[in-house]
Amino acid sequence: MHGAQQDVQETTAGPGRSPEEMALEELLADAEVRQGLTDHAHVPDRVAEILRRLISSGKILPGTKVPEVRTTQLLGVSRHTLRAAFQSLAAEGLLERRPNRGVFVHAPTTEDIRETYRVRRVVELGAVRQADFDDAALAELEAVIDVARRASAAGDLPAVAQANQQLHRLIIAQVGSEQLSAFMEQILARMRLVFHTMRGDPTFHTDYVERNARLVELLQTRDGAAAEEHLAGYFDVAEEQLLENLG
What is the model's pTM? Predict the structure, then answer.
């Protein structure tokens, strides 16, 4: 189904929408989410940023359909603009177009997991090796650990997951490269899709709180080699868990 016929289906198929699609509509209708969209110089990039952020925060689940017509209506952008954003996110492995069905949030495969951890080993181990973690940076990392521990004790798994992502975001930020930090946002979004495969295991994220805490302790002692070794082992364990669960 193409063109106007598909548009009619998207516009009129409200009662048949999945809970995930309805949740997505609610998110996109939020004025705060759309803030800065209309006056942004690069609107397709901004639209991609909005969708990427919703994916990386865990608010859009793998397999969720992103209806083109309704999304353009909610964001107030053209189909051309939205499709340019879709192309960017597809290139990042976050969206996929299914023939005659539309655009969906990508559901990770075993190769996605392997590729993501190959990238993380290069990027994050390199950051630990090269970056200068000053007292202010270490204080920020320690604060994230405190947040994660409190969230874990309260059973707030989404907050634990968010703290985990924030910690890794801060590690990359210490390199001082805007390009690398932007690339890390893509990695974090892909990781969130991968982590959704473990949503049936409530201990997955909580088990890594103390691994993160140990990493911060090693950074505080200025033992970069030990911190790098710890993070490499951390990645090995996480990758194995995710592959076993998906396989």
Answer: 0.74
